[in-house]
Fold each of these.
Amino acid sequence: MTLSAEQELLAPITLRSELPAETLREMYHYMALARALDERMWLLNRAGKAPFVISCQGHEAAQVGAAFALQRGKDFTLPYYRGLASVLVMGMTPTEVMLALFARAADPSSGGRQMPAHYGSRRLKIVTQSSPVGTQIAHAAGISLAEKIKGGDAVAWTSFGEGTTSQGDFHEALNLAAVHRLPAIFQCENNEYAISVPIRQQMAVNSVADRALAYGMPGVSVDGTDLLAVYEVTRRAVERARRGDGPTLIEARVVRLTAHSSDDNDRTYRPQRELRSLRQHDPLARFVAYLHDHDLLSEAEAQELRAQIAAEVDAATEAAEQAALPDPETLADHVYGS
Ligand SMILES: Cc1ncc(C[n+]2csc(CCOP(=O)(O)OP(=O)(O)O)c2C)c(N)n1
Ligand SMILES: [Mg+2]
């Protein structure tokens, strides 16, 4: 008997131990690297050196889990502004991330033009988002349509927050992708806030995944602090997309461990006890505990890895700080109708 698409995606996740230990340690490396870079960016912002930070903290497992199910250099990634961990897995280097933060000429995302966290790299097939939230969802539908027309089997993976699913772009993109059975994966990272607006004032459905039914595609809700669960759900969605069975909507339920951005003061709308309780669900701590429990990473190895990451973050910061700013002569380059 063949399982229906939804049943197949929701089938119990039993493959955890089948991933090699080396892959699991690599996953942890990317989560820890994303966290360390993110924390450094906040320090640089508070020291007056970086204009703006918008954090990935609490979303790392959802992003690393998903990105490990994609094929680097083949699949298209259209991340939103919290997508630091996803772009690192897809091949963006810490130095490239810092070049964008400092608006340097060599920033691969925009040559120092865009706000930080608008990740893009032609080399890595990472497509930068516009600042109006949700535009990348329609771009992902368009790219997957082009891929289908060309007869390729790459997928377009895009991410966005739950607040963004109230935008028309979300509706139009999912509808188009379902009608044409496009190889697209829509990952909603639901952290239950859109800046200061809690989810209950944003939508009347229980789960963003419920919305998939209305478009005619499978929708799956997964604990986004569980790296391996997100990996497995995304792996199944990628398989579906590559064999021509169409798109999937994945809701990864995550925690936002910081204020919305470096320009936001969440103490005005979020009780501190709520934040304290969310810290109990820190995906990084959860994955370290998993690795320890399964004898996959000793305390000494974890310490060594953290030291190596700290050195990597230092080197990236230094290299980017010393890199050249864009030449003022290039100010009007790429500006339409200047
Ligand atoms: C079209 C549009 N409306 C409003 C904004 C301002 N804005 C930036 S981020 C954001 C919140 C988005 O929330 P969500 O989609 O849940 O993502 P999160 O930041 O929580 O990860 C808003 C309203 C914007 N950038 N674009
Ligand atoms: Mg949100």
Note: The first strand starts at residue 76 and ends at 78.
Amino acid sequence: MDNYDVVVIGGGPGGLSSSLKAYQNNKKVLLIEREDKLGGILKQCIHNGFGLITFKEQLSGPEYVERYIDEIKKSNIKTLLSTFVLDIKKVKNGFLIIFSNSKGISKVLADNIIFATGCRERSAKQVFIQGDRCSGVLTAGLSQYYVNILGEKMGKEVVVLGSGDIGLIMARRLSLEGSHVKAAYEIKDSPSGLNRNIKQCLEDFNIPLYLSMTVTKTFGKDKLEAIEVAKVDKNMQVIEGTREIIPCDCLILSVGLIPENELISKLGVEMSKKTSGPVVDGQMMTSIPHIYASGNCLHVNDLVDYVSEASVIAGDNASKEIKEIEYKNITIDEHLAYCVPQRINIKTSNSKTIMYLRSRCKMDKAELKILDSSNSEIYKKNLMFVNPAETIRLEVNLDNIKDDIHITLNEKE
Ligand SMILES: Cc1cc2nc3c(=O)[nH]c(=O)nc-3n(C[C@H](O)[C@H](O)[C@H](O)COP(=O)(O)OP(=O)(O)OC[C@H]3O[C@@H](n4cnc5c(N)ncnc54)[C@H](O)[C@@H]3O)c2cc1C
């Protein structure tokens, strides 16, 4: 049976960066991807806005990943496409990876595994919309695949549910493709997507955005004929008397992404309720030594540049022997939704710990502090325009911490 130093599962931007880093560290690397091409979700993201940090250029999704795929092609990284990882077992001398492809079911042995399996979209049933499973109701990412990869047309009269970036980008895309995008509805009282996408994808195309409203029902047996929308109160409960029927033949759902972690959680890796991804340390190592995670399966990223950055950290550390472990936890206050990593291994160098955080609320000016267990300040940063839609990235020296640390985020006058 073949044996690899590092096996990377998922050939999106995360998996590509991790594979290249481990390979540059002279490791024998296997990259496994279930689709027939590398590139992950970025293959279908033909809009620009990728790579501003990494390449200081505005690239489309395919252009961004092509730069990594070109490097993979020049390397000796073994790549298995159209190959689905079915199961992973801990064995005496590493991990047994069981996968399926056109050759049948095969196995390889790995000393280290990096999970870069991305995320999947929430469906209509997960947001409790009543109605039959008629055609014309689909997620934003799936509609992006139909339009951008298969060249299919969507409906004539379209409604978008959710104001996350993917939904906003698809509202613009479908307008450009000749559909009439009637409106976007958002259950929260403020938009979820970036301000620039609200302006460029909705306002520039005269698409109204209705806040504190949701879709409650779909009508149509085989094909969508109409939807029911309603206003919601501050607890997101429907306000009776506000229900309204909107005729349409396409409903695009942009109602959130869920990290894809069936395989990793089956292994018994500790998971975070806040991110729905594994708990990791500053080296991107999970609670099981030799298992790493990066990209959207770790937490849902808004910027691919951060996916690549964290994946390089995972690839670098999966190529090293981490001998000693002593964890100190990172806790956060109520204004923060999460912090990745969730803990620090003080037995490794932490002179450049990269942290990714998300706030719970919008703040024009904010002050972020990292405090030690005696409430002394280790780090402070002033932030402008804090927004739950945008990751807060920190680079901090945590070499001298001896105990758990706590992060606070507060609005400034
Ligand atoms: C519609 C959309 C628009 C975006 N716009 C922007 C933007 O403008 N700018 C920006 O910087 N970022 C943007 N992003 C965010 C960024 O693209 C993502 O954060 C990034 O692509 C995530 O990379 P990943 O490698 O973690 O996941 P993915 O790209 O999802 O890759 C995961 C890969 O793992 C494979 N896989 C999963 N399970 C298995 C298995 N069991 N066996 C084998 N393979 C498996 C999948 O097939 C997939 O190829 C956007 C994202 C989306 C969805």
Note: The longest strand covers residues 104-115.
